[in-house]
Amino acid sequence: MQILVAGAGIVGISTAIWLQRAGHDVTVVDREGPASGTSHGNAGVLAAGAVVPVTTPGLMGKAPNMLFDPNGPLFLRWSYLPRLIPFLTRYLSYATDAHVDHYATAMSSLLHDSVEQHQALAADTPAARFISTEDYCFGYTTRADFEADSYGWSKRDAQGVKYEVVSGAEYAQYDPVFGNTFETVVRCKNHGRISDPGAYVKALAAHFVEQGGTLQITNINDIETKDGAIAALLTDDGRLSADKIVFAMGPWSREIAHKLGVKVPFESERGYHIELMNPSAMPRSAMMVASGKFVLTPMEGRLRAAGIIEFGGLDAPASRGPLDMLRRQVKKLLPDLEYDEIVEWMGHRPAPADSLPVIGANDTGNLSFSAFGHQHVGLTGGPKTGRVIAELISERTPNLDLRPFDPSKFKDQ
């Protein structure tokens, strides 16, 4: 079949490669090119144990203090608040124990083998060199801070996430770069890291093109529908049609998805990172700094500090608050670190109200498919999502319960 994939991030490129390997003629359409958004700017962690959403019980009471704490992980552009309120109401309604369990079970099935999924996707390609298998660590300043996080760890326990709790002194024997900063460190097993997420996705895209795929750089302005189903993409280069169309446009998927009847309550989460170029010391593994809810990841030639949530829409420029917070936190954590310069970045994560991505057919005729909404785990879940979409299009049954990810789940709400 001839298939269009809208979006050239990790989800779109993964989908394109698996469709290509299944024998289809695939064209990827993107407004800027591979890894131009979040697939470039993420923390680079293959977080197989990321099975606990942000919306946990008690978030409603904590959120106001977090918003007014300049060193907290949550930011808001106050001018955007009136537009945000309907989404925020839905988003906070999922801060229940029952939904956390639902989310954890669903996401565990999607993420548990993320390293193997990346290895299979990148096998025998230049992209394979960017993948490493190593612990993903959580650093806690005090034992009490770790114990205060017991709810999340109990949910990971229930999903079989393997981890080891060690003292900060013991961890320092493995990696001395943090000194005595952490009293307790959790080392999550069966995780991985991408040493340069942007270069990794670009290498995968180059492989896709070398194998006969088409990459078309153009704006998607609208869609054409017929009898309630999609007929074509309307782009700067004209009308593009195919047997099937896959939407993997991340936070830019909402408007088109709504036209297709995929009524997902949806917002853009603005994510930030800073990179310290040519640092004088480098951690051995990615470290989630629990006090600031950001991740320090060693990358090729630089140390990236990534994370933070800001609600402010797709159009506003970057805010200074999140970037300055990351600078302060890194300086506090590694006061003696030297580097050539700091590079700043802001991008957008797709955030459904229930935090679950949408993966599957949008219509009964299976003419279009959704593959977006991965929030904080797009890199982790991208390859498996792409494989699942390729299996659905090729009329094979994925070994995954797709009901939690059904694009039609909000249709009657």
Automatic annotation (TrEMBL):
Domain FAD dependent oxidoreductase: 3-392
Top-level lineage group: Bacteria
Stored Pfam families: DAO
GO cellular component: cytoplasm
Gene3D superfamilies, alphabetized: D-Amino Acid Oxidase, subunit A, domain 2, FAD/NAD(P)-binding domain
Keywords: Oxidoreductase
Listed GO MF terms: oxidoreductase activity
InterPro entries: FAD-dep_OxRdtase, FAD/NAD-bd_sf
Protein's name according to its UniProt entry: FAD-binding oxidoreductase
